[in-house]
Fold this sequence. Notes:
Elements lengths: L3 H12 L24 H8 L15 H9 L14 E10 L2 H12 L6 E4 L23 E5 L2 E6 L10 E7 L5 H6 L5 H4 L6 E7 L9 E10 L3 H8 L11 E2 L25 E7 L3 H9 L3 E5 L5 E6 L5
Antiparallel strand pairs: 1-5, 1-10, 1-11, 2-5, 3-4, 3-10, 6-7, 7-9, 8-9
Amino acid sequence: MSSAVDGAEHSLQSLMMDSAQPQEGSLRPPAPAPTEYRDVRDVFSAANGAQSPSSPSASFSTPQKFRRAVRSGQFAGPTNGCCPGYMQCNLVVLEEGPAAYDFLLFCQRNKKACPLIEVCDVGSPSADAVAAGSDLRTDIPKYCIYRNGRLQAEVEDARPYWPERSVAFLIGCSFSYDGALLEAGIPLRSVEQGRNVPMYRTNIPCRPAGSLKGNVVVSMKPIKATDVAKEVEITSKYPQAHGGPLCVGCPDAIGIRDVNDPDWGESVDILPDEVPIFHACGITPQAVLMESGVPFAITHSPGHMFITDLPSDTTI
């Protein structure tokens, strides 16, 4: 498999050709009139009350079967706990031009929050290098559509919105090492409680790139105090999935005022013998795209990932 850097170099010249403004007629008009949201949290206040067509479980024995279930509408829930042992990815899709180039540079400068797994060819919705026969427009349970830095809609099919001159980026996700944690006897509270993972804005600045700037977003796992060293040891072996934690306990240290009030996802129980562990999160790009007012973007909906055919410990 060609590396993300090789794919990035292959695309550099074409990414710089177009203007930052979306081209008239470059997007097919969406079939239904989308709901406009003031903030990404508006989506989840509605979505968290909705029931998924099925629950995340080991019922999907392979990533291929999982993607087929998503594509056919049989599954639309968060992917934490799904297909353990396989690499999961965040998605960002931009139109060819300066914004895409800036984002590529942003990922290279902020590898902890945005570890690049793959950059697709211009105009291609296929990620065959990491998932044979895949279609990034349909194989993710939910997508977010952004215009001018505002979240416009959450959809289960991105085909009506996909740009003709798209540049799709796949970024590593901490769900990739869920299987390793479970094998080590470390439970996943979000899976146990059937909830999306909690995610938070922090006061940790990213390194800017061109027009893009913002702070790191983190996800949280409650871990028994006696298992913290084991969790750090395991997760540090997965730099392609954000690696080890940014913060152990003390959420105030990274600007989180209330750990029970996440900016994305859902709160989970933290037991008396547990410590909140915070890892860099692939929602960082969405927060950055909103703050930077990018004209148009498609991303995965927080917690709803693209599952690849790659083993989770694959070195990129």
